[in-house]
Design brief:
two-stranded antiparallel ribbon, elongated, about 425 residues, mainly alpha, single chain
Length: about 425
């Protein structure tokens, strides 16, 4: 199906008699908004040279012919265009006809946010007559228009319908491709308690939208306070999202499962590691000895090196420097991170890592070295910008050279 691809393309095609479903994608909120904007431009532009028609304004503008009467021999004003007409009198007069044209309700929603008061008020009277469930398919457009100054009316009707109507309507919108629509549907589902805690935990663990992760994880944990089964926590702590895992680890405390937090001390996420330490401390346990033990088997627990730096002492810096030579890149990265946390980074320990074969290690070393960039020898860094060097090394050297210049690094010969 071909649809108008320019701002006013759909409006032009409608004016030439093309059926609505061929002129635009009627399932797209953006297409309806573009049609409205495009129709307003038709009174200022002539038809394309490929369509040698007179300007539209000569056929259906000032003074507007009554709706339903021919505006030119054999032509009538398409109702869709009348609803988008630049003249507010035409838009207002067209609104009553939407009662018999439900396919044009998207334009009725647009008119509810119209800049002209009489048009807006009349549109709202007509929209209020539409059964609430029939607003659900328009949710994407309604929420898009809700950002406009006068766009709140239709949103209020939609939310009222979703909060009071059948749960199936809310559940259908939870899978909508539009992110704003999904968020509203999930919020209402949580408020109406339409989802059980395990479902909420599963959504939090699998959803890619951070806002929904937080919403559903918090709702699942709120249910835990009412005595929900422990399986909810198990689902959260197994999530790929660090935010959701962190919520689950924190919930171990409320579930009386403090010792299980030990398994997350070496998590790859700093926020999860911090939550694990918090839970252990609440139970009176010191996480530091655990970290020292974990660092004796760094290959099995790469994140332990970072955690050791986050809660250790300067005496632990030697352990971390030793791990900088570990054959596993993940261990070297976390060792650098741990040294940064301890404020124990030295040029002697991180400079060799700028030539590391693992790009992740080079990036970590660069971040650690930036505060002391002015102490690097310029020629040493420039050698590492040579084309034959690995890309990660070249990028690191260039970044340090820029930082060195800002910090007034001493020139070298």
């Amino acid at each position: 199906m071909e649809h108008g691809d320019s701002h006013g393309g759909a409006a032009e095609q409608l004016a030439l008699g093309m059926p609505l479903h061929k002129a635009l994608d009627t399932t797209s909120a953006a297409a309806w908004v573009a049609l409205d904007a495009g129709a307003r431009e038709l009174d200022r532009s002539a038809w394309s040279p490929l369509r040698p028609e007179p300007p539209v304004r000569r056929r259906w503008l000032s003074p507007p012919p009554p709706l339903g009467r021919p505006s030119a021999p054999g032509r009538r004003i398409p109702l869709a265009l009348a609803l988008c007409h630049p003249d507010g009198r035409v838009r207002e007069a067209a609104l009553d006809s939407v009662r018999d044209a439900p396919e044009l309700r998207p334009l009725l929603v647009l008119r509810c946010a119209d800049w002209a008061g009489p048009v807006r008020e009349r549109a709202r009277v007509v929209l209020a007559e539409v059964p609430g469930r029939e607003l659900v398919p328009l949710a994407g457009l309604i929420l898009r228009l809700a950002r406009r100054a006068q766009g709140g009316f239709a949103r209020t009707l939609l939310e009222s319908s979703l909060r009071e109507g059948p749960p199936a309507d809310v559940e259908a919108l939870m899978a909508d491709p539009d992110r704003t629509t999904r968020r509203l549907a999930h919020r209402i589902a949580v408020d109406r308690r339409l989802l059980n805690p395990m479902t909420l935990a599963a959504i939090a663990a699998s959803e890619g939208d951070v806002t929904l992760q937080d919403l559903c994880a918090d709702a699942a944990l709120a249910a835990l306070r009412d005595g929900t089964v422990p399986a909810v926590v198990d689902r959260l702590v197994a999530a790929r999202s660090p935010r959701v895992r962190a919520a689950g680890v924190t919930a171990l405390r409320g579930a009386g499962r403090h010792r299980e937090a030990e398994a997350f001390l070496a998590d790859r996420s700093p926020v999860v590691r911090a939550c694990a330490r918090y839970v252990l401390r609440q139970a009176g346990a010191d996480p530091l000895p655990h970290y020292r033990t974990l660092c004796t088997e760094p290959a099995a627990h790469p994140g332990a090196a970072a955690g050791l730096g986050e809660c250790g002492t300067r005496a632990d810096a030697d352990t971390l420097r030793t791990l900088l030579a570990h054959p596993l890149p993940a261990v070297r990265v976390n060792a650098v991170t741990g040294l940064r946390a301890l404020d124990a980074v030295t040029l002697a320990c991180v400079s060799p890592l700028l030539d590391d074969p693992a790009p992740a290690v080079v990036r970590a070393a660069t971040l650690a070295a930036l505060p002391d960039a002015g102490r690097f020898e310029e020629h040493w860094l420039r050698e590492r910008t040579a084309p034959e060097r690995p890309r990660a090394t070249r990028v690191a050297a260039e970044r340090l050279l820029r930082a060195r210049a800002r910090r007034g690094g001493r020139p070298t010969g």
